[in-house]
Design a protein that fits this description.
Order of helices and strands: HEEEHHHEHEHEHEHEEEHHHEEHEEEH
Oligomer: single chain
Helix content: 25-40%
Bound molecules: pyridoxal-5'-phosphate
Number of strands: 15
Shape: globular
Distance between the termini: 37 Å
């Protein structure tokens, strides 16, 4: 099938919910992907921080084959061994005692919001249920999670939005302190804002959030959908700060591309979901959780978070060299581990297109930040090449 025909059919039959690049990807191997015309690219998008083990990973492929041929799906009316094993492994390697599985990041956050409201009602008055989230954050596209996403551009046209959400500026503890009141149930926050421009908060921010939540008797809920699973150089981004949340949401990289979401919680919070209170047909099915188990165990056994820290350092160093070469084209290089942002001066779309023409796929973030989220398995040569291509793309647009 040629690319021109595919793009015509796409135009005609798909809802145009996003602006797509004029490329159809058909095959992948590690950090590389190929399009329908046979052109090769370095994939530094990782499917938006999803393919942490790279494309076509033999263990992931093996698990999918084996599980699909054994038992693809059964309902949550039955015990699902793979789901139990994955929950146990997640709890052994995090703060959590209990896990609820769903199918996406938005669903994991929906669950967190429902958990917080139910928990708050059991620990206070019946009108307690407000969620405070941060301006510039991103939590998903369902009605509740898009409302928690404190960016009006995502709300436009979808009103009326559900009530019970309040916003404060990111990285501003005083504003949060002022916003917390007797109706607040929880704070929902990303430890690094991924979609909002790769914004890394001050070192004291997470410990400060923990303290404010403890003083007010409300929940600290971390959205680690983008930052989790080793991306920032630790298995969970909260580990850098030395504090733990009450609730954490995970999705994206958990099953390397097989849809999955997970909401992790302490015993005190997790026990509020009682039989019949919540549910999902697909959530935690044998296929998704078998793959999640393979991905998480591989990540732990092969120490991929440490690798992400090393490769991320190299990537930021190389990008700083590009920054020195083109000081007027880059405002700042920032990030943690392999979640890296390059705030640009020239229009982001031109630089992303220039990278793509030269064989590098990169993401956008915030108003004008190029975002890189390659597999945690990325090799040094690919990191060097990616930085070189970004330099060439900047030279061409300046
Ligand atoms: C921090 C964060 N939370 C939630 C989501 C929503 O996840 P999903 O697209 O799987 O619903 C995303 C997606 O980019 C995200 O980055």
């Amino acid at each position: 099938m040629n690319t021109k025909q595919l793009l015509e059919w796409s135009d005609k039959h798909l809802m145009a919910f996003t602006k797509r690049y004029p490329v159809a990807l058909v095959r992948g191997e590690g950090v590389r992907v190929w399009d329908s015309d046979g052109k090769e690219y370095l994939d530094f998008t990782g499917g938006i921080a999803v393919t942490a083990l790279g494309h076509n990973h033999p263990k992931v492929v093996g698990t999918i084959r084996e599980q699909a041929a054994t038992l693809l799906h059964v309902s949550n009316y039955f015990h699902i061994p793979q789901q139990i094993h994955l929950a146990k492994l997640l709890c052994e390697h995090s703060f959590a005692d209990r896990v609820y599985f769903s199918n996406s990041g938005a669903e994991a956050n929906e669950t967190a919001i429902k958990l917080a409201r139910k928990w708050a009602k059991e620990h206070g008055s019946s009108d307690r249920g407000d969620i405070i989230s941060m301006r510039g954050g991103f939590h998903g596209r369902t009605l509740a999670t898009v409302t928690a996403t404190a960016q009006e551009k995502y709300h436009h046209g979808f009103e009326p939005l559900p009530g019970g959400f309040k916003y404060v500026p990111y990285n501003d503890l005083r504003a949060l302190e002022r916003a917390i009141d007797s109706r607040t149930a929880a704070v929902l926050v990303e430890p690094i804002q991924g979609e909002g421009g790769v914004i890394v908060p001050d070192e004291g921010y997470l410990p400060g959030l923990r303290k404010l939540c403890d003083e007010a008797g409300i929940l600290l809920m971390l959205d680690e959908i983008q930052t989790g699973m080793g991306r920032t150089g630790r298995l969970w981004c909260y580990e850098h700060a030395g504090v733990t949340p009450d609730v954490m949401t995970v999705a994206k990289a958990l099953a390397n591309g097989v849809p999955i979401g997970a909401t992790l919680a302490t015993e005190d919070v997790g026990r509020v979901l009682t039989p019949g209170s919540h549910g999902s047909t697909f959530g935690g099915n044998p296929l998704a959780t078998a793959v999640g188990l393979t991905v998480l165990s591989t990540m732990i056994e092969e120490r991929l978070p440490e690798r992400a820290a090393r490769m991320g350092k190299l990537l930021r160093e190389r990008l700083e060299t590009v920054h020195r070469d083109y000081p007027k084209a880059i405002k700042e290089v920032r990030g943690r581990g392999l979640l890296v942002g390059v705030e640009l001066v020239p229009p982001m779309a031109d630089v992303i297109a220039g990278c793509r023409e030269r064989g590098l796929l990169a993401l956008t973030s915030g108003d004008n930040t190029l975002r890189l989220a390659p597999p945690l398995t990325v090799d040094e040569a690919s990191v060097e090449r990616a930085a070189q291509i970004i330099g060439q793309a900047l030279a061409a647009v300046k």
